Backbone:
């Protein structure tokens, strides 16, 4: 199991990225650290609150430790099922375009 931070949440970095730890309710799957710029932070807020999102500029986010999985069918699924196309990724870099 990956290291769990003592405090979950957001930790601003010294540059343009902010580090987000896994939410406590999802720690059973491991700690999925994300580094996000302001475009990705806006996307994360929209996703968490089920709001529409349209980027205003190109954005970069990355996960050096990879993730423990997500569904290609249901973006809010918390576990694999027979029909939700669960995918586990390794280290990755993601872009959002305006």
Residues:
């Amino acid at each position: 199991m990956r290291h769990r931070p003592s405090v979950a949440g957001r930790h601003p970095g010294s540059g343009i990225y902010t580090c987000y730890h896994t939410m406590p309710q999802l720690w059973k799957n491991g700690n999925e650290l994300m580094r996000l710029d302001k475009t990705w932070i806006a996307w994360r807020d929209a996703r968490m609150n089920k709001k529409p999102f349209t980027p205003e500029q190109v954005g970069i986010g990355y996960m050096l430790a990879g993730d423990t999985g997500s569904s290609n069918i249901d973006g809010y699924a918390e576990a694999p099922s027979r029909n939700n196309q669960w995918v586990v990724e390794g280290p990755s870099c993601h872009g959002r375009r305006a």
